[in-house]
Amino acid sequence: MSKTTTEAAPTAAATQDAPALEVRDGRTGKTYRMPILMEGVEGDQAIRGMDLRQVKADAGEFGLMSYDPAFMNTASCKSAITFIDGDKGILRYRGYPIEQLAEGATFLEVAWLLRNGELPTQPEYDKWVHDITFHTYVHENIKTFLQGFRYDAHPMSMLCSSVAALSSFYPEAKNIFDPEQRYTSIIRLLAKLPTIAAFCYRHVKGLPFIYPDNDLSYVENFLSMIARMSESKYEANPVFVKALEVLFILHADHEQNCSTNAVRAVGSSHVDPFSAVAAGVAALYGPLHGGANEAVLRMIEEIGHPKNIPAFIEGVKGGKGQRLMGFGHRVYKSYDPRARIVKQLADQVFAQIGMDKDLEIAMELERIALSDDYFVSRKLYPNVDFYTGLIYRSMAFPTDFFTVLFAVARTAGWLAQWEEMLLDKEQKIARPRQLYVGYGERPYTNTLTTKNPRTKKDSLRR
Ligand code: ACO
User: Fold this and answer.
1) Considering only CA atoms, which residue is closest to atom 39 of ligand 1?
2) Is the pTM of this model over 0.70?
């Protein structure tokens, strides 16, 4: 057996009256009692994966593992940050329903809540906002760095690299077990993400970078860095400010999604938080995750007209790999509560600035999909990304910038989850097991005639 074994020890005394799972190994006839963890007020239940390792047909064996590709039924941590009930369509941050936070809180208030577990007092909030506001500037070299990108670089590639590059500007950030240093790094990330995001936007547009305006709120300042031209003071449209504030709150955290898992896994190596958050940005870039709002708009543009919707839906149902983007979710098997809020928000934005031509297609797509047995039987409902793209576009954000907006907001959640992981005594470096299905041992034979082939010169000149 090539694996190094951590000797399997049952994790808790499985006393007769404690809740436990009794498993009988059909190979040996032996019965095992595995304590059932009953966690939190919501009553989540699990057995510890390590308790399976005591199950062996033969004393020399490694012990049983659980096989769970894509973590479909594996809890990787205990977390007190975000609660989701996918069947009931519930999302709460630290116990507060997302609907109430979207209605009454600011994004920075939510960022505080996610990190600290409680709503801030006024002095706490004032200091938090002050500290974030006064860290919004980035080192001038970041500008030079960004200018090295091609004019058509995807802003998520630029954002990911720039966030990773920040770690080289703040080498002290590697002192992750120093609470003050952690606080400074968290403040820096929350403060600088909008600045870098806006600089990416301006670079792609060929516009001069606009420095942060510390008199403005977090969202107003972001819009100023995006849109300000020659005016001395930028005044954002209040409808857009409100919409972006709500969208940032809705996207701030979503428990153990793909990018958060990436941040936790990379952070578990005890790398600095800039590098860990860069991993989150990379994960979010994918079309099955944060890239979905971009994919929704491209899909709607491709459909082009409501009359083409039935043929499109038939194509999706035909199973040729085309998906109805913005529909379906790993966790929500009913209406995504964020989608409900976003739909209302879209109505408010379009009531102010006029109907988007593609909104009609989106609404018709939703209507047809919600009444079609293919989608209903698979519990595929609109997710948060279905309508966000339409709002972002009405605010004149380019399509490939949508995921950047998501990343700015999700940074709050990534950081809260990263810190929770670091301070969790049960956590170690994340390192899954595998079921090896490759060859057994075989001898090496030389199949080459030369080990150092030279590239033909003319092939380079072609
Ligand atoms: N359109 C059509 N069929 C779908 C869709 C969809 N959007 N989503 C799932 N299905 C079908 C699958 O083909 C599968 O059907 P089958 O049982 O006949 O094979 C069934 O529903 C289950 O799908 P899975 O892929 O197993 O579901 P999973 O939980 O792994 O995937 C995911 C979730 C990735 C979000 C998926 O629904 C999807 O690709 N949706 C479109 C992309 C999207 O909108 N992503 C954004 C997610 S939200 C976020 O990240 C912020």
Assistant:
1) 288
2) yes
